[in-house]
Amino acid sequence: MQKRSFLTVVMFLIGMFMTGAYAQTHTVSGLVKDKEMGEPLVGVSVSVKGTKNATMTDLNGNYTIQTSAKDVLEFKYVGMKNAEETVGNRKIINVSLSPNAESLGEVVVTAMGIKRQSETLTYSAQTVGGKDVNDIKSINMINSLQGKSAGLQITPNSTGAGGSSKILFRGNKSISGSNQPLIVIDGVPTMTNTTTSQVSSDYGGERDAGDVMSTINPDDIASITLLKGAAASALYGAVAANGAIMITTKQGMAGKVSVNVSSNTTMEMPMILPKFQDTYGAGADGTFSWGDKLASASKNYAKEFFRTGFTTNNSVSLAGGSENFKAYFSYGNVFSHGMTPENTYRSHNLNSKVDFKVLDHVYIDFSAKYSNQYSKNQAAAGYLWNPLTGAYLAPRGIDWNYYKDNYEVYDPARGCNVQNWTNTELQQYGNPYWMLHRQTPISNRNRYEFGGSIKWDITPDVNIQGRMRYERGEEQFIHNAYASSVGNLYKMGRMKNNRYFSDQLYGDVLVNYNHTWGDWALTATAGSSFTKTKTAHVDLWAEGDQFKAPGDGNVYYPNIFTPNNYYGNMSTLGNGDAMNTEKRLNAVFATAQVGFKDAVFLDLSARNDWSSALAFTESCSFFYPSVGASVLLNKLVPMGEQVNLFKFRGSYSIVGNDVPIYMSNPRYTLGGSGAISAPDKAAFRTLKPEKTHSIEVGFDGTFLNNRLDFSFTYYKTNTKNQFFSVSAPYESGLRNRYVNAGNVQNQGFEASVGWHQQFNADFSWSTNFNISYNENKIKELVEGLENGLTIASWQGAKVVLNEGGSYGDLYVRQIKRDEAGKPVKNADGKPVLMGDNIDEMKYAGNMNAKVNFGWSNTFHYKDFTLSFLIDGKFGGRVLSATEATLDGWGVSERTGNARNAGKVVVDGVEFDPQLWYTETGSSNFNNSYATEFYVYKGTNVRMRELSLGYTFRNLFGNGKNLTAALIARNLFFFYKDAPCDPDVSMGTGNGVQGVDIFNLPSSRSLGLNLKLNF
């Protein structure tokens, strides 16, 4: 009886305890929003402070978690200030997070995908959110970051939709190698197969194969971390000497399935066009506009030629899952009608990611991606193969619509249609509509990616992770030319059908350790990686005259572009070119961070690479160390409540830039008709990789309750062991030899300041200003280059590197002057031109701006949002061969005004307008001209972006919102000096930025952006 009574009491007490415990634990849910934008935040970490009880917000910004009344919830999100809420008796806790560029506790994705707290970093690393690239979209998503980060310079190619962009951190470092940063997606380096030869001469017409950025759906991006310095990217070794761009993509969230839909539609029109004269028509030659006055004003043929383009960028994503299984799927497409007639671009992107938990501590994820890009009549700068030359140079007063509708006529001798134009014998000048229909470049690109990882949490402090990704790119480039194209150079037509293939297999294994002992903390990672890349291309190229007999002609019928129509095919492989390449890079690396009292941090890292490009040399191995430290003074010295962060940091690192393949052991090449050619360059058996020595110091501060943010960084880099090709001694029988020499120095600073003001519950303002300064100096070059090293030459203008000079120094051809500085005339009354040897040319300045800045503002009132971005640069020079050619052909406004005035006066000396401009301007693409008169200041300030949006809350139900925004990009210039857009680039290679040779004009875009989540 007593035993029963005892059990009854015990059971009663247990029941009371369980009831009390249950009463103390309850479910809390809520919505987390961006305080500034009012939009739901996806992937916010919601945790019970001091425990491992945590969850994340879903794609609608909602969360659910089990808590007790005494618990404190912590809310953390990249780029936002942390927030804490005491639970109490509340079951619904909605939170709004404020933006902060350097918020305390912010998790930053660093090299190798390692996540670190932002305040512990010993180098500069800026994180921007997905909103920075998907609110006002660009077809190449990286272009949306223009002006938004100090030290980041982005220059799109003048090839329009699907083209590459030149990306630069902290100046040009490599003379012969790449200056582009490494692109990393979800911690894994991507295959970078950007072509650097979009423009190899004044002629132009080469292909732009795009870059990896143009294959990314901006709506898939969760965040981007910019690792600008060598210390930040040192763990990637030989492929990251120029910094790295770390892209983190979205993934599935636990909870219900969420759907997000976005649609961005814009109209594009030319932002700037040349100024033409409309008074004087063609002369006796029927080509140049140096004739008599017209009876009536001529049309502006450039305006007649361009059309209003439009682009639609659509995306839909689905995400969901449980705690043990999550999935994310998205589809995006882009369709564009360019400003150039007959120009179309379309792309499709499919992306899927799944991750699941196996056993208790094993996590597996898998991803697959496919992208297809199709481009027709993509713009290409240069004199040849460019419809803009005909649109700009057509003689004033012609019947434009006639040549537009009748761009071809029948030729009975050849039995086919041929070009119809005012002059069909000039290679640089053709009917633009013939080019668009009969010299049509077509690109079809496919890119496949498959990857996965497995992670095992061995203990709470130790885990091991393995990753692998395979990528393959395929492109078919067709550029056939019908008979009579290019000044009748191809009398029977030309076939060009090329295929390009690239593969990359990457794998790594990382062991991570994280532990805290009292005031001390240690975070360490060690691992190994390999990268295997392969490229191949197959070219079909054939042309010739009408076939009569072997050795007399090659083409049977005009305009039939199949191999069977040609007696013999011609190979495009030049001496030293490789049809197939293969390269391997193996590495081991380690990094460790020691922390003391969460206030003092010391970073150490090291990497050793083995590159197959160094085969046959003394050592295939090279070593890169890095060291850094940071101190959070506000945690060591009391500074008051208004100082939230007061941090000093510094780092020193050495990182490499790998060398091209086959330099240490040049290969024989196979030419036409089976001819085998020996290499004409000496084997470089002492080859070493370039090495960049970098020092960086900086300060980060957050003040006034996280409303004011300030960051400053000073850096200095010296890139040594530059890779040069120089002339070989005549007696060697070789044309060139390679050497390692030189020292290119970049030093400068980056600064940003931000302010967030919450005026009341409905109205807030956020502003951020960033500025950067870079000074480049060629400290050393190489012996034997008395006239410097020419890295680019443009029809009498040269980009020349000299010891003591700077990367991008521009030298131009000039007119002859007497001792008094007056222009000299010859017997015909023309100005006398100097030669184009470097000792006769004039230094015209440097083509790179020293100062770049951006100023962004966002105003939020209730559900309205207004934002704008102003950016610009100071300094630099721009060379416009377009303006020179317009003058030489007599179609520019300048030549019309000069003829109205009856003379051209230069430094007090009078010239006949036609004699002056035909001599100093460009009348033929093979002739040099007085480039000194066509160099302009690159300084400019523009309204880069403008957006006005409104969010319709709960339009389709609770949490189902629609956001509509009017958007604009490249609206207008506040100031510029150049007649073209000063931010111009003909390609991503070295020495081609700041050059305008009939480049596609920059576009001004206006449109509507819609976002729907449910």
Automatic annotation (TrEMBL):
Keyword Transmembrane: yes
Cellular compartment(s): Cell outer membrane
Segment forming the signal sequence: 1-23
Swiss-Prot/TrEMBL GO biological process terms: iron ion transport
One protein family per Pfam: CarbopepD_reg_2
Family according to the record: Belongs to the TonB-dependent receptor family.
Membrane topology: Multi-pass membrane protein
Domain TonB-dependent receptor plug: 120-244
Assigned keywords, A-Z: Cell outer membrane, Ion transport, Iron, Iron transport, Membrane, Signal, TonB box, Transmembrane, Transmembrane beta strand, Transport
Name of the featured protein: SusC/RagA family TonB-linked outer membrane protein
Domain TonB-dependent receptor-like beta-barrel: 426-779
Organismal lineage: Bacteria, Pseudomonadati, Bacteroidota, Bacteroidia, Bacteroidales
